[in-house]
Each structure stands twice: as C-alpha cells, then as structure tokens.
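Researcher: Next sequence.
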Amino acid sequence: MIPPIQFTDEGLVAPSREEITAGLWMMMREAFGANLVEDARTPQGQLVTSLTAAIVQNYDGMIELGNNFDPFYSSSPFQDALARIYFLERKQAVASVAQLEFIGIAGTIIPKGFIVLDSAGREWVTTAQGEANGPLVPAACSVTGPIQAAPDTINVFKETIDGVDRVTNPAAAAAGTATETRANFELRRRDSVAANSKNMSNSVYGAVANLPGVIDVFVIDNPRKTPVTIGSTNYPMDENSLLTSVVGGDDYAIAGAIMVKGGTGCSFVGNTDVLWLDEESRNAFKPQYNVKFLRPTHVNVQFKLTVVDAAGISYANSEIAKKHIIDEFQSGSQRGRIGGLVIASAYLCGLDNEAIRPVKLEVSTDGISWFDSIQFGVDQFPVSSTANVSLVSL
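Model: Next structure:
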C-alpha cells in the first residue's frame, strides 16, 4: 500500500518517491493481477507515474503547512498569524532618515517640516526643529522604502531661509525598508516577545521597535547606584537610569512607549528630551513627564572589496557587487545596528564568485584604517551606500 506521511517527534516525515511508486504498483497488481507489466511506457505505468507525482506534491504541501507553524520557517500569512499572538503587525514600508547639517548665521531657526532636496530630486523633510551651526537636524525622505543617499548629496534648498547658506548630510542616510521581509519580521518577533510586559529593558525594546517608522532600537538599563559607561564609546549612564537609543520614528510616540513600558521609577538618559503627557490618567490634572532618549550619530561605513583583478570586472558586475554588499549590510540578522558589531565577511556570501573573484572585504569609518570588523557604540548607528564601496585589485 501507499506509505503515509509520518508525524514524528522530529516533525513530518514523508516517504520517498520510490517508496510511493512501489506502493502504487502493489495496488495495481492487486487490482489487475500479479502478471501486470511494470513498465513506465505502458498505460498503467503512466498512471503510476502521474499518481506518484500527485501524492508527492500533496505530501510536500503538508510538510510546508507544518513548517509554517514554526516561527523559524513561517512566511506570508502564516507568519503574520503567529506574530499576532504577540500583538505584532508586519511593518509596511519605512522611510529612510538622514541627519542634516545647516550652515549659516548661528541660531537661525530651521523649522520642523522644512524640505531639502537630494541630488536625485527627492524631498527630505525635517522631523524636528533645529538651528544653523547647531546639532544635526533629523530628516525623513518623503518616499518610503530603502532610499539611499550618499554623504553630501542632500544639499539643495527647496525654499531658502534667511541666515542659512548651505545644507548637507555629513553621513549617508539610514536606509528605510520596503514592507518588512520574512527574516526581519521574525527577528523583530523574537526580540519583541516581552512587548506586552512592563518595567524591563525588553519591554521597552519591544514597544519602541513596534512603532511606525522605527528603523533600529537599542535598550539597556543601569540598576546600580553609581554612574557607569557602556559600549565601545563609553557612553555615560546615570545611576538607576534607562537608555533607549532609537533611529527613526516619532519623538512623542517613542517617549510615550518608554514611559509606559519603562515606568516612572528610573531616570532617563539621552540627547533628546520630550515632555510627555499622561492622557490615560484619570486625575483631573494630567501628569507630565520629561522623557529622555538617545538619537545616535550616523557613522559612515566604507567598504573595500579586494578582488583578483578589479580592471577585469565590468561596470555592471561591479555595481551588482556593491549593491549586494549594501543590501546585506542594511537587512537581515547581520545588518548594521546601534551598538552592533559589523563583520565585513558576513556580506560576502552570495557574491558572484566567478565574475567578481572576491579575496576579502574590509570596513572603515575614515577611509584610512581598514578592519575585518568594527564594534559600534550605543550612541552610533552605522550607515552606508553604494558610493561607499570600492573595488581594488589584489
């Protein structure tokens, strides 16, 4: 008889195609006699071949369905359904963000909503008020998705401001995302399982990461009664404080998530101060809280790909290689993150070895000193673009 699919402790196990075919021939002999000719060129042979293919397809579908109940393998609607257990929804396209430097008369106000154009004519809208010669001003691209902007390419005024001479982006834009991929959604689900809890670092992480427009988050707390420094840049944290470092998203929404999930029993650390109003309080007087969080500096990452013969690589293939490296750097479990370790070799997998013939890949933040990996601080977010990738010969 036809062997069935097995439900085992290791999962669904289907019989081989040969075992299914043998079972079908056994059925045919029982139905039409023991002397039945077992030849694929006969009518009964064609019937066995077709039925084998149909059964194999059915078993494959059952295994695929079974795998979709495992978050590690699930995709599409099945992944969406599993994520809803944690009250998560797949993020739609997120806009790229950049940090702009306005140069002119010190103190000249740059209003929130001010528009600057990049070299491709795309609009970048400031998401907070700033001032000339002051701290870098955050801006978001008006087009959602992984829009790239190399350093010094967001530099055209759509309208002028008296007292402001020029504008630029010292570092590449932090690329947004298209609709969240299977891999990125699963990574966020694993990191967000504590989103419905409170008063833990993971609680804050899960809530902030789930906000619209957020590209990356890093959360850590200092439960000690003394100040400490953390990360490769020795960022200072006050005693009994909470640090939330965020790229993208709305300031007020982020402050609310930190306050609700982090609680009022600790101080907050960062360079962004938001006055948050507790609208859910049943008191006649709505409590107000000053919530701090960190907007990390965007740090330019340059890549140097050493190949056997750079001159022998066509322009098209070199551009494909550059795009592959940046795509890997901006997505998946090895993507550049706040406080993360960027390992250059992690972005080599998938390159066309025959056309490119890669030898090694190195990273740098200044174009002078090159390393196999770079550890970033909690106040740093690595960014890059294809303009930051160079190919050199061995």
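Model: Helices lie at 17-32, 43-67, 76-84, 182-191, 201-209, 251-262, 315-329, 353-356. The longest helix spans residues 43-67.
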